[in-house]
Amino acid sequence: MKHTDLTTKIIGAAIDVHTALGPGLFEHVYKECLAYKLNNLGIKAVKEVPIPLIYEDIKLECGYRADILVENEIIIEIKSIERLAPIHFLQIMTYLKLGHFKLGLLINFNEVLLKSGLRRIVNGY
After folding, report:
1. Which end of the chain, N or C, is more open, meaning fewer C-beta atoms within 10 Å of its C-beta?
2. Which residues are within 8 A (CB) of 81 and not within 5 positions of it... i.e. 6 or more apart?
3. Domain assignments of the chain as residue spans, ordered by start
4. 3-122, what's its fold?
C-alpha cells in the first residue's frame, strides 16, 4: 500500500476515534483505540515499538518508543495536550531518524476539530 493511501486510512481511523471519544482524554486512551481501529481495518498497528539508538557501533536501548508503528512504515506519535510545541516535532523527527522511517504522523487529539491537531512529517534522510 502506498504511503498516501495508508495515511488516508490512518487519518480516517483517527477521525473516527476522535468523533467517538472527543477531546480531553489521556494519550494512552487514544493510542489504544486507534491501534484497535487500525488492526480491525486490517492495517498492522503495533503499540510502544522500541526505537534503539546506535552510537559508535553499539546498539543502546534508551527507552525511546514510538506510540504506534503502522505497517512497519509510518510512526504515529499521539498527544493530548493544549497545543503542539516545537519539541513534539523534534521528538517524532528523532524517532524517524533513529528508526530509518520516512513518514510520521503527529496527532493531537485534544482539539475540537482533529484536523487542527494533525501534522504529517517527512524525514528526508
Report:
1. C
2. 108, 110
3. 3-122
4. Trna Endonuclease; Chain: A, domain 1 (3.40.1350)
Q: What is the pTM of this model?
A: 0.92
The burial of 87, by beta-carbon neighbours within 10 Å (0-12 exposed, 13-18 middle, 19 or more buried), is given as exposed
CA-nearest of 77, 68, 86 to 109 is 77
Of 27-41, 47-61, 62-76, the range with the lowest mean pLDDT is 47-61
CA–CA distance, 47 with 69 (Å, rounded to integer): 7
Query: Given the DSSP bridges, would you call strands 65-70 and 74-79 parallel, antiparallel or unpaired?
Result: antiparallel
